Amino acid sequence: MPPKQQKTKKNKKAVDLPENDKDKEEILENIKITEQNDELKSEIDSLDQFKFQKEEVNNPIKKTRKQKLQIEYEQSVNKVERASRKKLLDKNIDEDDKNQKQQTNNQLDNQNGNEEKSEQVKNQSEENNNQNEQKKKGKYNCRENYEEIYSLIKGYRDTHTAPVDTLGCDLQGDESLPTNDRNFQKLMAIILSVQTKDETTDLVMKKVVKEKITIDKAVEIPSSELKEIIKQVNFNGKKVEYIKNAAEVIKNTYNYVIPDQYEDLIKIKGIGPKVANLFLQCAYNKTVGIAVDTHVHRISNRLEWVSTKTPEQTRIELEKLLDKKYWEDVNNLLVGYGQSVCKPQNPQCQICPVKDKCPEGRRRLKGKKKI
User: Fold this and answer.
1) Taking residues 152-173, what's their average pLDDT?
2) Which fold has domain 290-371?
3) Are 192 and 233 in contact, with CB atoms under 8 Å apart?
4) What's the CATH fold of domain 153-288?
5) pLDDT surpasses 70 at 270
6) Is residue 61 over pLDDT 60?
7) If we measure between CA atoms, which residue out of 113, 189, 151 comes closest to residue 325?
8) Is 274 tagged catalytic?
9) Residue 281: closest CA among 297, 299, 260, 311
10) Is the dihedral of CA 115, 121, 126, 131 positive or negative?
């Protein structure tokens, strides 16, 4: 639709008016001022063109009238000029503000873009690290490959001696005694070894042999005297109670013959799964289960063969996992390894043959210089 047109009073020229109300009002105002200026100019010109006589020209009244008209005209012209300059200034200011705002927005956009890009790079890096870590974790599963782990640890143990190899329970006791008493001393050694180092157990067992502690003597000896003999082992008071109780049951219930059945052994107070399984191996060369002590429990969890809280839970899970051909040797293998390499505190992961496969070894060696 074409813009509206308006004619001025004098020249009757057509003027195009914009649709915007604000701009329309401004143009109409300027037209009005211009018309007033034209009228003033016309009156001034008429005064100049009129031929006054000399005295008329110098007439103060007419002279004052002319000056007044000229002042009004100049003020009106100045008003239009000021309005034009203000409009131009406002326009320039608006454009500057617009440019400044656009520049600020661009800077913010760039900053936000850089931050987003940085965050994306960071997230990508973290994701890559997590993926690499997951790949490392998933690259080798110790539980699924327990036979290889077992073989690597055995290879190390074959060339490195540990205390259990020379001081173990299977080597304890007086070999000159009759079979029943000799087996009883082996049972004593296993009970004494619980939560006690092999070096200490060996020292105490030398005193047991010297004192000739047999089944009958264990029943007869006062608890205080027996406690004095074994005082160097941990929990010696409880162990005195277990040894004397076992001697009485073996003498009175089994006629001096220690049971060779797992179920009968664990009925005797003080004989649990670990003691029963280890005794059957040492005395009767029978393997019906896995003997799990603190070393076996700790290493099995570090390798993630199992995820358990107690040695008994570990025994149950290991017997599900390991082929029976490993049951006989796994105790000696891991006990010796726990004594020399995979220690409770400060394990020697840097010399471990499975350090790159063991989850615990990888975690401990991460960021450390390998030796």
Assistant:
1) 95
2) Endonuclease Iii, domain 2 (1.10.1670)
3) yes
4) Endonuclease III; domain 1 (1.10.340)
5) yes
6) no
7) 151
8) yes
9) 260
10) positive
Block residue for tokens 């009073």: 9
In this predicted model, which residue has the larger pLDDT, 352 or 79?
Answer: 352
Q: Which token pair is 88?
A: 């131009």
Catalytic residue among 186, 239, 244, 274: 274
SS3 141: coil
pLDDT band at 366 (very low <50, low <70, confident <90, very high): confident
Within the chain, residue ranges assigned H as helices are: 21-49, 54-57, 60-139, 146-159, 163-167, 179-193, 198-210, 215-220, 223-229, 236-252, 262-265, 273-284, 294-302, 311-321, 327-340, 359-365
d(CA 249, CA 255): 9
Rounded to whole angstroms, the Cα distance separating 347 from 340 reads: 9
Q: Give the pLDDT score at 214.
A: 97
Give per-residue pLDDT as tens, 304-358. Answer: 999 999 999 999 999 999 999 999 999 999 999 999 999 999 999 999 999 999 9
The pTM of the full predicted model, rounded to 2 decimals, is 0.62
Q: What is the dihedral of CA 156, 152, 294, 345, to 10 degrees?
A: 70
102 token code pair: 């656009």
Domains in the chain: boundaries: 1-52+60-78, 153-288, 290-371
